[in-house]
Amino acid sequence: MTVLRSILLFALAAVAEIGGAWLVWQGVREHKGVAWIGAGVIALGLYGFVATLQPDADFGRILAAYGGVFVAGSLLWGMALDGFRPDRWDTIGAAICLLGVAIIMYAPRPT
Description:
The chain is an all-alpha fold. Helix content is 80%, strand content 0%. The chain contains 4 helices and no strands.
């Protein structure tokens, strides 16, 4: 159950951070205005709180592992909302990052 909770928290963190960054991007680069930017800033702040809910207590480990989730999640976000189509190298790179997440977060550790 701890691994499932951790995975769900990583997914929620990805939505908050990637979504927040995307909203800011839309507000600034696509000239959608200050409301989009403000919503993005709020989402980015929520990301910071979600990360603290991870069951592991090591900040460095959580943020390092989240980096891999961010890579894969960003590609998925781009596909879903911006029409981005990853090539095989994007896909291979994302898979390697997610393998890194699994090793960093879920490998057995001595107690």
